[in-house]
Amino acid sequence: MVSYKDLGLVNTREMFAKAINGGYAIPAFNFNNMEQLQAIVKAAAETNSPVILQVSSGARKYANQTLLRYMAEGAVHYAKELGWEKPQICLHLDHGNSFELCKSCVDFGFSSVMIDGSALPYEENIALTKQVVDYAHQYDVTVEAELGVLAGVEDEVHAEESHYTKPEEVIDFSTRSGCDSLAISIGTSHGAYKFKPEQCTRDPKTGRLVPPPLAFDVLDAIMEKLPGFPIVLHGSSSVPQEYVDIINAHGGNLPDAVGIPEEQLRRAAKSAVCKINIDSDSRLAMTAAIRLTFDEHPDYFDPRKYLGPARDEMEKLYKHKIIEVLGSNDKA
User: Fold this and answer.
1) Would 132 be classed as within a structural domain?
2) 62 vs 55: CA distance, rounded Å
3) Residues annotated as part of the active site
4) Cα R_g (the chain), whole angstroms
5) Which residues pair with 53 in a beta bridge?
6) How many Cβ atoms are within 10 Å of 5's Cβ, its own excluded?
7) Is 98 exposed, middle or buried (0-12, 13-18, 19+ CB in 10 A)?
8) How many separate domains does the chain show?
9) Is residue 331 included in any domain, yes or no?
10) How far apart, in whole angstroms, are the C-alpha atoms of residue 68 and residue 60?
11) Alpha-carbon distance 87 to 258, whole Å?
């Protein structure tokens, strides 16, 4: 059993309370490798922003659970080396799909876990969430649950259709499950193809897809039912078109990739939405930088020569999200 407190990590309880009261959201950035982790920590340290390091079950398999534990501990020490005296870094399991997986993460030093029972019948979702909560809370690990279904594909999470969260269920669900935060469905979705072309309109000037707006009426109704309760948005990458264009111009093939407009995320961040998940955007930044480097320098074979620019581009992206979208800078 490894306690996250011995690794220098924090859970989400205090950072979420401050975010709700302050009208901003905490960035939750997924990572799979060292370069992503370096970029996240450097961006958070230099903007003085609390941050959540997210690990999916797929990333856990890819990176190895033991290495992840030491990477998280190393992230805290790296942040201190950068001058961040008291880093507010949370290590979070994204989309845990079983009690056993969540328990394993708690035992390996995660400070927060998500149990995603959203595909289950309502009562089974409550029961599974409560089982995880009862275990995690023994070790002061916070638990995120999900009610409603997001469409899209992300690692091992896949759903063809989205189903909005029902506001009339949120009080009963959060009370009976005991969860610390609730991921809801209001129109965001996973991956770089968040909407089908038929769901969008096209900008006549650029020809780009324009996604439908988020269902802020559903968010408002949930906030009215659960005043002050931490709300989470998944699938909130904006899919920056400059990265899509670079990728497509240098051998890639991402037609009609579209994300959530940043102005809608800014609006959400000023509400009870205190955690916003961003994964695809950093993948796009990394891929764009690597493709561009390979095209400009076909002689490169040292990974540092192309992973270095990719890391720098991701750091730039993370800082933009922290400062210009989520408003979490200078809040740590």
Assistant:
1) yes
2) 10
3) 94
4) 19
5) 29, 91
6) 13
7) middle
8) 1
9) no
10) 7
11) 34
The two structure tokens encoding residue 15: 């950072």
| CB 212 within 8 Å of CB 164 | no
Burial 53-81 (b: 16+ CB within 10 A, else e): bbbbbbbbeebeeeebbebbbbbbebbee
Domain carrying residue 28: 4-326
Task: For tokens 């289950």, name the residue.
Answer: 120
Contact 114, 92 (CB under 8 A): yes
pLDDT tens for the chain, 332 residues: list them. Answer: 999 999 999 999 999 999 999 999 999 999 999 999 999 999 999 999 999 999 999 999 999 999 999 999 999 999 999 999 999 999 999 999 999 999 999 999 999 999 999 989 999 999 999 999 999 999 999 999 999 876 544 555 544 456 889 999 999 999 999 999 999 999 876 665 556 767 777 878 877 777 778 899 999 999 999 999 999 999 888 999 999 999 999 999 998 888 899 999 999 999 989 999 999 999 999 999 999 999 999 999 999 999 999 999 999 999 999 999 999 999 99
Q: Taking a C-beta distance cutoff of 8 angstroms, is the pair 276, 233 a contact? A: yes
- The CATH number given to whatever domain includes residue 67 is 3.20.20.70
C-alpha 74/C-alpha 76 separation (Å) is 5
Six token digits for residue 317: 């992206």
Q: Which two tokens stand for residue 293?
A: 């480097």
234/146 Cα distance (integer angstroms)? 10
Does 286 map to a domain?
A: yes
Cα–Cα distance, 20 to 193 (Å, whole number)? 30
Residue 288 lies in a domain: yes
